[in-house]
Amino acid sequence: MFLMNFLPKDRLMRSLALLMFGLLVCTTAMAGRGDEHLFPSIPGWNIQQEEQIYDANNLWDIIDGAADLFLEYAFVDLHIARYTNADSIEVKVEIYRHATPVDAFGMYSQERDPQYNFIKIGIQGYLQQGVLNFLDGVYYIKLSTYQTGLTAQNAMQMIGNKFDEHLKQENAFPAVLKIFPITGKLANTEQYVARNFLGYSFLNGAYVARYDGGSTFKVFIIETPSSEKAQAMMAEYLKVLPKDSVTRVGKNRYDIRDPHNGETIVVAWKTFLYGVLNCTDSEKRENLIKEMSTNLPK
Q1: Which of 167, 199, 231 is the last residue of a domain?
Q2: Distances 141 to 115, 159, 173, 198, 233 between C-alpha atoms, Å
Q3: Dist. CA 186–CA 123, nearest whole Å
Q4: Is 142 found in the same domain as 54?
Q5: What is the domain count for the chain?
Q6: How far apart are CA 296 and CA 186, in angstroms?
Q7: Which of 148, 172, 219, 249 is deepest in the core (most CB within 10 A)?
Q8: Last residue of a domain, which of 151, 167, 183?
């Protein structure tokens, strides 16, 4: 800047223009190099990466019906490539990147079904005919092929494992899931609901799991940044309920007849809100609340 004070005005403008152009080229090149690391080279396979990168501004162009749901889970970008080998097997790979592992889990949890064929890949994946989807740190990865048969299925699994090795993510489910009691919990029903839990705009970031107690019901946990935030969230909830639908039990617990969600037990303790929805077995309800209290981080 000191030298520019001595340049003629026309030379100064040209210098600034060249500088801005150089920064633009450098930034574009760096962005291109940054994207390449997502797709590993695999011996015997050619890779064709799509130039188009999808983000929050254009995700509707490729997944119009599901874009809004992805954006609820802090979606960052989507990269797509196709792998082909000499036997004409083609595997399409879609890498959905989210801001945090919790958001990636949330999106994955919304699309998985407890009846799927789950396999060990990344944190968890499921393999169907022509489809392999799995969770890998901040990435939700989808592989697909039009080819049928064991060879194509094995190819998808091999490529998926290469991605898992290549991306080097810390593969573990969110720690909050450990708070859920094990007894009665239905496998692979855990979900993360980013927004509007139970239909209320102030209940966000809820972990939910389904349980079997004769009839199915749900248990939920919301982790907040502070005990003040947990208490404020509880106060917001109580404020929208009819006064005769709330019974206070002890210092931190409320038994609620929610007009929209049925019988609900909610406890606000430290940084957590947790509870049970529509469990008709009173003994089971009490045991679940007690066990969650024990499982909370000390």
Answers
A1: 167
A2: 19, 11, 16, 28, 34
A3: 18
A4: yes
A5: 2
A6: 20
A7: 219
A8: 167
